[in-house]
Amino acid sequence: MTKEAQNERDDMLVDDPEPQDEQIDDIPDEFNPNYLKVYYGRLFPHADMFKWLSYGNDGKHPACDQSYIGRREFSFTLDNDIYLRFQSFNCASELENGIKDKCPFKIDIGPVYSVDPSKRLAYAQSGDNIFTPVERELVFDIDISDYDDARYCCSGADVCLDCWPLMTIAIKVIDTSLRDDFGFNNILWVYSGRRGVHCWVCDGKARRLNNEQRGAIADYFRVYKGNTNSKSKVSLVGSALHPFLVRSYSDVLRDFFEKKLLCSQQLLSDERYEKILEMIPDESITSELRGKWQDNRRSSSGKDVNVVRWEQLKQLLQSGKQKATGIRRCVEEIVFSFTYPRLDMEVSKHMNHLLKAPFCIHPKTGRVCVPIDPDVCDEFDPTNVPTLSKLLREINTVGLQVEGDKVWERTSMGKSIRYFRGSFLQPLMKSCKEEIEESYSAKVQQSKNSLTW
Amino acid sequence: MCKQLNITKTFRVSKITLVRSQKKPSSASADGVSTIPLYRSAPTLEVRLEDFERFAVDRLLVLRGISDGLARGKKPDEMEKLVSDLWKANMRHPNTSEIIDKDIISHFVLRLVYCRTEELRKWFLSMESTLFRYRFRLETSDVHRALMTELGIPYKSVTNAEFEGLKEKLSQVARSIGQQLPTSDTVYYKVPWEEVSELVGSRRVFIKKGYAYVALNQVVSFVIPHFRSHLSKALVLTNRKWTSMIREQEKDRLTPIVEALSTSYLGPDYTQDKEFGEISLKDIDQVARSSFPLCMRHLFDSLREDHHLKHGGRMQLGLFLKGVGLKLDDALAFWKAEFSQKVGAERFDKEYAYGIRHNFGKEGKRTDYTPFSCQKIILSTPGVGDHHGCPYRHFSEENLRAALGKMGVGSRELEQVVEKAKGRHYQLACTLTFEAIHGASCDSGINHPNQYFKASQNILKEKK
Ligand SMILES: [Zn+2]
């Protein structure tokens, strides 16, 4: 049966996991569906998620749109890859019960549609095809597996503390631009649980962007030439760089490349320097450098060989002799190639892409998709993110002493939930209220005008 | 020039008023600055009925030319030249003072013509916006400023103090796109970035805190969306007026003209093509294989196979055959040979022969019917069991591929044709098919099945 077909008969396919009596003293590190039930029951911040996705429309203000949250698509991935799309929930308790009930391995969040997505078929039968996405956070998805030609320590979905900083600087570059260039304020960065980060831009203006404008933002961030298969080649043309690229380069990328990546990935070691030489379009320069590096395998100064070679390369490329901007630009191109954020553009361009919800548990690693504070993203350590089994042990320890919903405060998830509430949700709610007030007074003003007209 | 548009000759009436409106035409031309009107409100100009139609046809030629240029993927510079040439060729008026009137009148007539369906509105909106874009580009920055004021675009230019603070960044952008460095005289507009998303996407503007700083020579990017959204709303309103009022009120005068214009074909008349004429029945299968466009080939093959065609198919193929020179007697024999296998000779004579004679103007109102143009065929709506219509538009991709393969289109060209058809460039898809089969280019593009036939015969004759 296709996934689609399964979706249409969701109710038949959902079963609660078998109740298990065994003690959970010895909790294995990997993901376990039974613990997931406990997690959704005692730790998952249902109410905060609901509050977030209501964007102030759950209030009493006359301008609140009561149908708003009910038009949002949730999709659940259950055990055995059963995939339930177009779920919707009208109130906080419905959402909480839905999640506890189905105990999804993964929760994805889709757009807000013109009508309740669970009733889309009824609308389709009524003739008018009015089922269409009307609002969606601007989202970004960055995966470390897209950086395999920029790191030697790991590949694929694996990640370690040597390559994770590539994600950190992606956050810095994109976050700064979203705030300073585009003027967005309500931005949530989330660890995807395994190999990357997600970004949710939640400002009203961002949620209402059309696909064309989303595409423009994606293009603004694009520096890689060609399609996804040729990501490694950056092309920086023109006699100057756009201020966004200049800032990204001089504030973030250059330092990171020179002070971290160069040495941590040994980019100019004997076995690896050819790859960088290939990026220089002038053969006399590459053979000069190759000559130097072959003869002089160990640096005498005691400095790291990668740093020494990088200085030599820069000196040769940027010396006054090099007239062509193409050659001088080459240093920047190398830095960009290795460090500039590699976004999955398709996710950002369209309103109807689904993205995994924060606070899900990654089914392969058991890690919680916790928020990342961009202001201190250097401190984020993916190998230290709480796992499902760790949380379960903590619940076992503190659970008996603490009243119902306060359990989370005493677990290692406490910090993440406090950040989510204090630094993301609270300012977001404030701006939602202001927006609702504003649209209301505009409406009142308009109706006054039409009375006198 | 085009026979089917000469409907007006019976109404040699004095003058008509286009649309009733209290407002004065408020074009920038009033200040003697711009020659581009913004078509904000319907003119109170009086117009002779024959001008009503003639102006519209002239403008339609411009818009069709633009449509063709876009479909061919012409670059901005080529488009600029094309638009300027098309405009000069079609929108002149012997009396220079009336050029703007002609511009305005023709625009408003075509609004009536193209307001009537979603598809027509979309096409008109797209072509008029493109036309405006390139005309705007040719104007001076004083005109740009005047037009922006008139469009009610509220953006303030950046103040000197703000400019000084941003000068370095603005210079960086100017250098990065190879433009002149800004000085304190350079005018910049500060606009929400969403309104110039194409400039943002190509990093051709500096943006800060949600605002884009747009140089005066880039303003076309935010003027166009304004122009477009205004026109889009206006078209919906016009449609409402048309269905609720104008169509009925004008049913004896404007309505027939308006209805004919959207499907009218503006090329040469193929009603009776004397040049080739007289295709005889014995050659018809061979000629169909070599020189029929896909739509006619499909109808022809279906008829041979089913010995029947429904009304839409009989009209489309029948008039085409008349156009290529099949005489009435031969046409009757041709249709009878097929249909009688299915319905019997008697029923053919009784039920179908009339229609064929009718097409030749021998029955009924005795009008000589004209072969359908591509435009008309593309806009037709074939139903179940129908074989007429434009295969590039109405076939499934699978069927189109099979049909093109059968026509002998090579696999590489086939992909291009399918690509164009998917991109809704049906006539260009047909042109590419023609070029693939004949191994010769067809620069004029295919606009009419009979033109396809004629061009094909020309090439085949040369080869002999
Ligand atoms: Zn690693």
Describe the structure in brief.
The complex is a heterodimer of chains A (453) and B (464). Chain A is of the alpha+beta class and 453 residues long.
Write down the CATH class of the largest domain in chain A: Alpha Beta
Spell out the CATH superfamily of the largest domain in chain A: DNA primase, PRIM domain
Strands of the largest sheet of chain B, in order across it?
A: 3-5-4
Question: Which regions of chain B have little confidence, pLDDT < 50, spanning 5+ residues?
Answer: 1-33
Approximate helicity band of chain B: 55-70%
CATH fold-level name of the largest domain in chain B: Transcription Elongation Factor S-II, Chain A
Please state the second-level CATH architecture of the largest domain in chain B. Answer: Up-down Bundle
Could you tell me the CATH topology label of the largest domain in chain A. Answer: DNA primase, PRIM domain
**First-residue to last-residue Cα separation of chain B:** 33 Å
Q: How does CATH name the architecture of the largest domain in chain A? A: Alpha-Beta Complex
| Mean model confidence by pLDDT of chain B | 82
Topology pattern of chain A, helix = H, strand = E: HHHHEEHEHEEHEEHHHHHHHHEEHH
The main β sheet of chain A shows up as: 5 strands, antiparallel
For the largest interface in this structure, which chains are involved and how many residues does each contribute?
Answer: A-B, 24 and 21 residues
Our count of helices of chain B gives 20
